[in-house]
Amino acid sequence: MFRNLYPDNTAASAYDIDYKSLYESGKRGILFDIDNTLVEHGADSDERSERLFTMLHEMGFKTCIISNNREARVKRFNKNIGTLYVFKAGKPSKKGYLKGIEMMGIRPDQAIFIGDQLFTDIYGANKAGIDNICVKPIAKHEEPQIILKRKLEWIIYRFYRRRVRNA
Asked: How many beta carbons lie within 10 A of that of residue 100, not counting itself?
């Protein structure tokens, strides 16, 4: 029923993912959401996010930010990271995801998307045919419209966990 909203995998954080295994499995490009995936909503890059991108680039990954934010916000986050980005991506439309893949010069099967929201991030990645990992949101306090989405996500996760247990 909710299959397009189900993530391929989950992780506690974008910082807890085994990127070496992803590379060994043939992934060559990583698409990231910013807010509540890499940093708290609206925050600039921090030392941890900058180290992550440095490590990924040293491993041989291409990276791209996929964000529904305006360019000014994405540029501000990207200032010390220097990765490719797609702003006003229109998630969950697949257009921004496919643009990011094209910018990285890889095939969809070589990409993976990492984000924190089922209804935008994961749904869009699934529509674009891109493997994905849903991480827990960084911030504990969120905007009212996000809080409502999180309550709906909780219902989806109940069905998802049953599916994973029974697989």
From this structure: 27
pLDDT in tens, 96-146: 999 999 999 999 999 999 999 998 999 999 999 999 999 999 976 666 666
pLDDT higher than 60, residue 1:
no
- In total, how many domains does the chain have? 1
What is the per-residue DSSP string for 22-89?
HHHTT--EEEE--BTTTBSTTPPP-HHHHHHHHHHHHHT-EEEEE-SS-HHHHHHHHTTT--EEESS-
Q: For residue 147, is pLDDT > 90?
A: no
Classify 9 as helix, strand or coil: strand
CATH code, domain carrying 10: 3.40.50.1000
Q: Which whole-number Å values give the CA distances from 54 to 14, 62, 162, in the listed order?
A: 14, 11, 37
Q: Tell me which residue range forms the domain holding 30.
A: 3-166
